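Pilot study result, target chain (125 residues):
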Amino acid sequence: MFVETEEYARQLRAMSPAEKDQAYARVGKWFADHADKIRYSAKLQSEDTATTVRLESAEPVITDGPFVEGKEIVSGFAEIDVADLDEALRMVRAWPGCPLVEIRPPLLGPLQGMGAPPGPGTPPA
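Predicted structure:
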């Protein structure tokens, strides 16, 4: 997950159009350089488009805005297919975008026992 900080957002807003074009070109090159390992990626809309559903009480509480009160916003993500964490770290070291990247492995196995419906092509239990 690609995470933007307040400082990074300020720096991005302060860039000239040419500087922004160069920054986005570096990110595009990173994606092109690693295209053989990237299964899917997406840039998320800004945090002001977020809707949060808190399920901690008897009734859900729905609010506008990001899910946490913080200074960092998840701005996008990429699903990569690599052998191990070391390979993921090698890729991330070259990331030219926002200053934080969080790496998480996927859950292994179906989520059926956890209340999630079966995915496409998954036989019923």
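One observation from the pilot: The longest strand covers residues 72-80. A full batch analysis is planned for the follow-on phase.
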